[in-house]
Amino acid sequence: MSAALDRWSPYALAVLRIVTALIFMEHGTQKLLGFPAPPESGTPPLFSLFGIGAILELVGGFLLLIGWFTRPVAFLLAGEMAVAYWMFHAPQSPYPALNGGDAAILYCFVFLLFVFTGPGAWSIDGARQPTGPRHSWGR
């Protein structure tokens, strides 16, 4: 049973990467473009802390979606989510269910997982690998 499941793990990892990236990109489009709905506080100035975060969410999310530079992008986004949690959520309450930071924590650790696992199947990183022995950075 384990061997059969192991065979599918690159595809499960790819599905996690793709779904996570799509949902993460939605946060960026909301802040930058007001889609699907503008944030309650309005769209932030582009070069503000929230504006730069929105750019990271949209562009970084897209790069994760296609699986290009997955490991360094995931590292950057994990850091963004750690900063978001400790800067904006944790000061409100030590409990994530009360401070609204549970999504930031989950994103942080999912992105950290991609730093160590790579993108899984269906990625530009995987397609760009040279034939022969696998290199650790690309997959």
UniProtKB/TrEMBL annotation:
UniProt keywords, alphabetically: Cell membrane, Membrane, Transmembrane, Transmembrane helix
Taxonomic superkingdom: Bacteria
Pfam families per the UniProt record, alphabetical: DoxX
GO cellular component: plasma membrane
Coiled-coil intervals, chain numbering: none
Extent of the signal sequence: none
Family affiliation: Belongs to the DoxX family.
Name of the protein in its database record: DoxX family protein
Biological source species: Microvirga tunisiensis
Highest classification ranks of the organism: Bacteria, Pseudomonadati, Pseudomonadota, Alphaproteobacteria, Hyphomicrobiales
